[in-house]
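Form 7-S
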Amino acid sequence: MIKKYTTNQNTLAKITMRKSGESVDVTAQVSKIVEAVKIDKDQALKYYSRKFDQYEGSNFAVTVEEIQEAFTLVDQTLIEIMQTAWQKIYQFHEKQKSHGYIMTQDGQVMGQRVLPLDRVGVYVPGGTAVYPSTVLMDVAPAKVAGVEKIILITPPDKNGKVNPSILVASQIAGVDQIYKVGGAHGIAALAYGTPSIPKVDKIVGPGNIYVATAKRLVYGQIDIDMIAGPSDVLIIADDSANVKWLAADLLAQAEHDMLAQAILLTDSSRIFEQIENELTNQLALLPREAIARQSLINNGKVVLVQNIEEACQIANQIAPEHLELAVDQPFAYLGSIKHVGSIFLGHYTPEVLGDYLAGPNHTLPTEGTARFYSVLSVDDFVKKSSYLYYSKNALATQIDSIAHFAKAEGLFGHAQSALIRKEKNK
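Output:
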């Protein structure tokens, strides 16, 4: 089931390789949907909602009554847990807020302003699982940034109902408006605007390949957070780790998606030998056994490394979304990890803690993009602009330098724009 390797030059490529799924190009199909919504607006939205979600209604906005009903349908304990999670997530992101800066010297004033985006769209997927945690994670940094209006879209069921836990999470997080629409057509509606759904400046949130492709196609018209792929976890374990816990953490990731990736790197021959049996035993207890099993077949790997230092080197080549350092002295290796979305240190910090309650964001770069992408943060919901002021005397000391530089680039109009200010005022 799970592939087993030892590290050598011949197997390293196999260890770092990822099977991302079928090589199906959906760009043409998604492009057609996006263009239809751009041109036909709500008419196209209704058509694709009927086609993909079997929703026959014409009203996309979630009503106050639907939200009130959701609070009666969601377990009170879950509501209280989500409220606690929201507080922790919000407090963590408050530390990220930047207020810009100003520099003054000899008649010069310059600085940087940090301003929130006006309007942001949050996409929350439906399908085989429900993610109210994504609502909290994606809205919190936007709220901290000071975004004026936050709009959430999520696909409804065929009766036009949105999962009540998503509605409750949206209210806890202070979402301004919720629309029951999903897929590529929902992304297009946020990007271009329709009579029902307002245009936004940026779209964040995960989705399937159709959603990801739509985000890629509308990028430039609006901003996006990232192109998210299947989720992944990499666990580095030494002999102090509990094999039952390791198996549970691998399966927690595998049950997301048949294309999810779960990898264990260990220098313990005991763990290397025992992990497969433990995975088999725990798989039988999972309601999503079929998904988790296929995920392990597709992308599951356990690797016997020479030492933890080698495991860290491999981890940097994989650039995982999540990395667990299930070792006796995790902080000793923290500095060795360069490319990762989020790191979980020690035996008592499972990745699922970060999914729900701890505070750091769980919207992370996937499929090796941690080499250049960052975790979702307050910085994703602001824009920065600079300003500059020079007095007459301050400019006078720079005019000749500006003109010399401009002429070197062949831009004599630029040079004259500076030099003309040396002439006496008439």
